[in-house]
Write a structure and sequence with these properties.
The protein is of the alpha/beta class. It is built from seven helices and 16 strands. The strands form four sheets. Strands 7-8-11-12-13-14-15 form a seven-stranded mixed β-sheet.
């Protein structure tokens, strides 16, 4: 029995060391959607609205191209974040993790079975797969869920709970903050100081979220991460500068490296 225990401990230590040696892969799928592969090989998908967004790389219009998904996260109920989440949950037979009141609405409407719609709220921390932890944090936005009633054929608007961002901690301790849709707010500083994210995925489009100037202020004065990935923006025809270029210019010289990904590009950390 003692030998078995020692062997189990050795295997666990080997697995931990292997995870430490591996990297975290981040693939931007356009808009606010990302696929993250953890050091241990677990696949996390956030805010999949792939079939309806023009910025989605063509191959990922087919949800099966994502491969096996282990963790599914949605930040709020707007169509450009949740559209394909129920289909992905069904395809992979996994829970859809989202704001508690949003999942309550999805349960009531019969979008998914209740067991696939776990409820939690801000500051809630879950570990849906071994070694990976995610924590719900504040986002300054709104949330509704528009549902097509099959009986009437008409759209209905339902409460979508409060929007969230997520702090995602990998097996090796590496942390990503997906901010969801958000405006600027002072507690970004507290969230950064408390959770210490290495990478921040932040919206910069303006109108519905922070613009590039506010995002630059947040990075420079409040968050100060190692890396930032801008998301959730549109490039207007004829514009002299894109929102990511505006972000880099507004940010100036800082220790934060802005990663200007194109949809379909990936980066490793």
């Amino acid at each position: 029995m003692k030998a078995i225990t020692i062997l189990a401990c050795a295997l666990a230590a080997l697995a931990s060391a292997s995870a430490q040696a591996q990297k975290t892969e981040v693939l931007w799928l356009g808009h606010a959607a990302f696929r993250i592969v953890s050091p241990g090989g677990k696949v996390i998908v956030i805010d999949p609205a792939l079939t309806v967004m023009p910025t989605t790389p063509p191959q990922y219009k087919n949800l099966e191209a994502l491969g096996k998904v282990d963790v599914l996260l949605v930040t709020h109920g707007h169509w450009d974040h949740i559209t394909d989440a129920p289909a992905l949950a069904k395809l992979n037979k996994i829970p859809l993790h989202a704001p508690g009141d949003l999942n309550n609405a999805l349960t009531t409407l019969g979008v998914l079975p209740a067991e696939q719609l776990p409820r939690f709220n801000k500051s809630g921390r879950l570990s849906p797969v071994p070694g990976i932890h995610f924590t719900a944090v504040r986002a300054e936005h709104s949330s509704i869920y528009v549902w097509r009633n099959p009986a009437s054929g008409k759209d209905e608007t339902h409460p979508g709970g409060e929007p969230m961002g997520y702090i995602i901690q990998m097996e090796n301790g590496f942390k990503i903050w997906h901010m969801g849709d958000t405006g600027l707010f002072g507690d970004m500083k507290w969230i950064a100081e408390h959770y210490k994210p290495d990478v921040v995925m932040m919206p910069i489009g303006g109108r519905f979220t922070m613009d590039a100037a506010d995002a630059a202020y947040a990075l420079r004065e409040l968050i100060k991460p190692k890396f930032a990935i801008p998301m959730h923006y549109r490039v207007m025809p004829g514009a002299k500068k894109t929102p990511p270029e505006e972000l880099v210019e507004a940010l100036g010289q800082t220790s934060t490296k802005v990663l200007l990904l194109k949809p379909g590009e990936k980066v490793e950390f």
